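Treating backbone geometry as a discrete language has practical consequences that deserve illustration. The sequence in question and its structure tokens are set out directly beneath this paragraph.
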Amino acid sequence: MLLEVRDLHVEFKTRDGVAKAVNGVNYSVDEGETLAVLGESGSGKSVTAQAVMGILDTPPGRIAGGEILFQGKDLLKMKEEERRRIRGAKMAMIFQDALSSLNPVVSVGAQLGEMYEVHRGMSRRDSRAKAVELMDRVKIPAAKERVGDYPHQFSGGMRQRIMIAMAMALEPSLIIADEPTTALDVTVQAQVMDLLAELQRELNMGLILITHDLGVVADVADKIAVMYAGRIVEAAPVHAIYGAPAHPYTRGLLDSIPRLDQKGQELYAIKGLPPNLLAIPPGCAFNPRCPMARPVCRTEVPPLAEVGPDRTSACFFWKECLGA
């Protein structure tokens, strides 16, 4: 197994108390496999990824428990210097806002080349040549002429390609893409996702795709983990999730996708708001918004239990959900 997250807990200390952002998350991804992590904003998707990468803001955040095994070694037991050697070289992250993630006063060529200077000890001239190769690889037109340009001189789609190039520079075994198509139009979204899939096949790398958009992952993911209030509430192969979700929250997410056969109808929306992580409700965290909630849902936390081949659900009434 390339990456395995076991019972991960992440907390943030605030003036109002302790926010439990991640509450016992378990997931895994292997070489050449794509795991999509879905959920609304605040569900813990990005915090889990930051913990895996070792870039969690500490303080106020802290990892309160669990293991993160990368190629069989627990990252949480490594010294920072050892993790720094892994970060970028063996695992890399693509952030959702390329403009704020790239340095605005340094050319894109210099930012791409820095990877080779720091990790490979290359000269500035050689690293610049590598930067041009990377820009060509992610299909940026006239790469040789544009290697000296700054981030603001590129479109949103081109900036996202530069972020992908930066993540791919050292050909890591694992890429974490955090909302890589945010704020891009539909056509550019498709181009970015096709590029990621192409590079993944070429390098046989593992890919964790973090998103709230189920439409983005339908054609690229192998399996899906759905998060709510810091927990995984359903995990299954992509065809099983889309065919018959085994959790009311997953069904709500699917029902909220616009469909061509429902033209003119009001778009479905899950009622209510995500819970306050400083005061997660007792029982199932989704119970205040769940149309299937019963008394037991308000007092007991449903375990993430096996409900079929390679699929789990944290719902007492998953059978009814499948039959809905």
